[in-house]
Write a structure and sequence with these properties.
The complex is a heterodimer. Chain A is an all-beta fold. Helices cover 0% and strands 54% of the residues of chain A. Chain A has no helices and twelve strands. In chain A, strands 2, 5, 6, 10, 11 and 12 form a six-stranded mixed β-sheet that branches. A four-stranded antiparallel β-sheet of chain A has the order 3-9-8-7, with no helix packed on it. In chain A, strand 10 and strand 11 form a beta hairpin. Chain A is globular. Chain A starts with a strand and ends with a strand. The model of chain A has no long low-confidence stretch (mean pLDDT 92). By secondary structure, chain B is an all-beta fold. In chain B, 0% of the residues lie in helices and 58% in strands. In chain B, strands 2, 4, 5, 6, 9, 10 and 11 form a seven-stranded mixed β-sheet that branches. Chain B has a four-stranded antiparallel β-sheet with strand order 1-3-8-7, with no helix packed on it. The radius of gyration of chain B is 13 Å and the shape is globular. The chains are: A mainly beta, B mainly beta.
Chain lengths: 115, 113
């Protein structure tokens, strides 16, 4: 069975500072990995995904994540955050084999960007 | 926009009453899901469906039932609501095929008094 650990429940940072939100997963098979973002009082939006190929994936708003198979990690980074990045971020994993229909989510990391 | 709507968006009800939440999609995706979101727990899968009349349990299915009589609609029913079912409920569809890339509805905030 898969599992996802988001190591920080809350991350406060100042505007224009860099940030890293950590995600580790556990799985006995190959995986697909996702980061979702939830702005206050909204649903979840897909931020970026790793399916195959390049281990570094990017979003349109400056976030990036790197798949590290040896460390079973998929950390999310941004070199300079904005106030508007304040949100909760969820890491999720799905099995790449066996036709798994389910995503397993981490418990989320609340990013607060302060002026 | 993945064409997912949920109704109602907010509901307050009393312990012991039945409650049905509706999820509607416009794109005929095969897989649909119901999650609940609670502080400190992230998203937990309640039930999911892989076709009309085909459903299966998730990790927190006790106290919930689902039905899918049409491809576009997936209903979640709380037969007798309890205060522990106060939560935000999200519906999702799998638009990514084998990649299981899911897209979410706007959510329903349910309060059970």
């Amino acid at each position: 069975a898969q599992s996802v650990t988001q190591l920080d429940s809350q991350v406060p940072v100042f505007e224009e500072a860099p940030v890293e939100l950590r995600c580790n997963y556990s799985s006995s098979v190959s995986v697909y990995l996702f980061w979702y973002v939830q702005y206050p009082n909204q649903g979840l939006q897909l931020l970026l995904k790793y399916l195959s190929g390049s281990t570094l994936v990017e979003s349109i708003n400056g976030f990036e994540a790197e798949f590290n198979k040896s460390q079973t990690s998929f950390h999310l980074r941004k070199p300079s955050v904005h106030i508007s990045d304040t949100a909760e971020y969820f890491c999720a994993v799905s099995e790449a084999q066996g036709g798994s229909e389910k995503l397993v989510f981490g418990k989320g990391t609340k990013l607060t960007v302060n002026p | 926009d993945a064409g997912i709507t949920q109704s109602p968006r907010h509901k307050v009800t009393e312990t012991g009453t039945p409650v049905t939440l509706r999820c509607h999609q416009t794109e005929n995706h095969r897989y649909m899901y119901w999650y609940r979101q609670d502080p400190g727990h992230g998203l937990r899968l309640i039930h999911y469906s892989y076709g009309v009349k085909d459903t299966d349990k998730g990790e927190v299915s006790d106290g919930y039932s689902v039905s899918r009589s049409k491809t576009e609609d997936f209903l979640l029913t709380l037969e007798s609501a309890t205060s522990s079912q106060t939560s935000v409920y999200f519906c999702a569809i799998n638009a990514g095929g084998a990649y299981n890339e899911q897209f979410f509805g706007p959510g329903t905030r349910l309060t059970v008094l």
